[in-house]
């Protein structure tokens, strides 16, 4: 995995989550697996883990055409369900949201608003978690969903109009 350049204008794929909370580590595992996939040269894959501030500052410093956040996100679907959602980046509130462990996409986008930056386009490749508890490793159903998410991200960046 490479580190995003502060002058990048391509695509950033950011794996986020806490590997010590079971399925919350979904985004980190997807980023790890994407490191072994041949992607176009304008694509950067990075594992941000729980470093929301780092991700927000990288996004504020760059002008990415597309940012793909990969995260375990509860939406009430069946565990292991993978989805792609376009996030609204225009109606963010610049509210204080400093939480050292808060990596939810809305928190990162609110922090970007606080920094005075609005990203161009942000997609969330999410997965419904089965177990978010103090433990290492993904549940079997979310582990199986990692391949689906890798394929979804690969298709998104391959079909991205540059």
Please provide a brief summary of the model.
The chain is α/β, with parallel strands linked by helices and 162 residues long.
Topology of helices and strands:
Blueprint: E1 11-16, H1 26-34, E2 43-49, H2 52-61, E3 66-72, E4 82-87, H3 105-114, E5 122-127, H4 140-158
Parallel strand pairs: 1-2, 1-3, 3-5
Antiparallel strand pairs: 4-5
How would you describe this structure to a colleague?
A 5-stranded mixed β-sheet has the order 2-1-3-5-4, sandwiched between helices. The protein is globular, with a radius of gyration of 15 Å. Helix 1 (26-34) packs across helix 4 (140-158) and helix 2 packs across helix 3 (105-114). Helices cover 30% and strands 20% of the residues. The mean pLDDT is 86. The protein has helices at residues 26-34, 52-61, 105-114, 140-158, and strands spanning 11-16, 43-49, 66-72, 82-87, 122-127. The protein contains 4 helices and 5 strands. It has 162 residues and is an alpha/beta fold.
């Amino acid at each position: 995995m490479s580190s995003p350049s502060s002058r990048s204008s391509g695509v950033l794929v950011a794996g986020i989550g806490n590997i010590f909370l079971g399925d919350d580590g979904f985004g980190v595992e997807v980023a790890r697996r994407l490191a072994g996939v041949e992607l176009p040269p304008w694509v950067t894959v990075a594992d941000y883990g729980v470093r929301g501030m780092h991700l927000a500052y990288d996004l504020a410093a760059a002008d990415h055409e597309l940012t793909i956040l990969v995260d375990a996100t509860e939406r009430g679907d069946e565990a292991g369900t993978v989805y792609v959602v376009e996030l609204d980046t225009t109606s963010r509130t610049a509210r204080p949201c400093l939480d050292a462990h808060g990596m939810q996409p809305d928190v990162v986008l609110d922090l970007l608003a606080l920094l005075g930056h609005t990203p161009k386009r942000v997609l969330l490749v999410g997965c419904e978690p089965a177990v978010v508890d103090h433990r290492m490793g993904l549940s079997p159903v979310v582990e199986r969903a990692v391949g689906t998410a890798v394929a979804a991200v690969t298709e998104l960046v391959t079909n991205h109009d540059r």
